[in-house]
Amino acid sequence: MKSKILFFYILIGISTFAQTKRDIILKDSIISPINSGSLAIEENYLKTYSLLKKLDAEFGYEKDIHVKILEYSYLQNDSINFKNDLTILVKEYGFKIDYLNATENYYNDITIGKLATWFKEMYLKNHFIWLNNNFEKLSDIRILNEVNVKDQVIARLSSEIITLELKPSDSVKIHTRIKNLNCENLQLIYDISKKNNVFVLSKKFPIIQNRLNNSIVHNFQTNISKTWELLFPLVKKAYIKNEIDNVIFQNYDFYCFLKNGYQEFNSYKIEQIPKQFRKNNNSIPLKDEKEFVKIKSEFKWN
Q1: What does pTM read for this prediction?
Q2: How far apart, in whole angstroms, are the C-alpha atoms of residue 244 and residue 60?
């Protein structure tokens, strides 16, 4: 199972059919250079940051990308954008120092170093503003940040169980229990999204700094039909409004292919799937071609 998760993250970088102009720019020109480390070169950083600002102007502030690029802003001594982004993230999206892991290249400087005085004043002022506007969301945000902790425990338990020699009946019971534990996390994501009338991974919702995507991926692995039934209406609404990118559709199609041998959103060609994950070498069929044509038009995919 672990190999499948790792494979998924490799797939994020490939070209797909199911994408908008925003998806293409994000994936190819912003996320890819961030993940590759090429923004350590000043020219690449300036080009990428400029493109990100244009994307912000057209589609709204890309909060998760701005979190990712913070370390490069700091590395390149771009203090204006570094400070501006931190201020926006704290004031508008509830960015919390508590959830940093202390390995960020700027962490020491904003806590005990040369930026500590500025950061403390900025953080206290703007965190209070955010609290005043979002106080009722505090419990939901705490719960969502804890989902990743629960998910890691479940994943660790799953990996340990694989190494044990169990009776078939015991194996089924344990698998069912793990599936139910994953579903509990999924239900939290769904319930909080419905309560707030916005998908919690949307850029319209406060930042969830602990990885929430992992829990969704694990639910795709263990109970893909129920997961998509719950999430798709929320995902669709957020995607149409440019509040999320198309990665969740790629996620879904990958695990849908593994389980059912087809895809719904035309995310992959068979050649893009490594041989060890293919059921055969035939092209990957669509579950419903008429429905895909409708979705493609609705989502404004190329």
Answers
A1: 0.89
A2: 11
pLDDT at 130 over 70: yes
Say if CB 119 and CB 111 are below 8 A apart.
yes
Cβ count within 10 A of residue 285: 12
Distance (Å) of CA 194 to CA 137, 214, 230, 290:
13, 20, 10, 29
Helices (H) and strands (E) in the chain, counts: 13, 0
Q: Domains of the chain: which residue ranges?
A: 19-135, 138-299
Question: Above 60 in pLDDT, residue 230?
Answer: yes
Q: What is the pLDDT of residues 234-288, one digit of tens each?
A: 999 999 999 999 999 999 999 999 999 999 999 999 999 888 888 788 999 999 9
User: Which of 233, 126, 146, 256 shows the shortest CA–CA distance to 118?
Assistant: 126
Place of tokens 């953080």: 123
Smallest CA-to-CA distance from 49 within 105, 57, 122, 204 is with: 57
Integer Cα distance of 107 and 97 in angstroms: 9
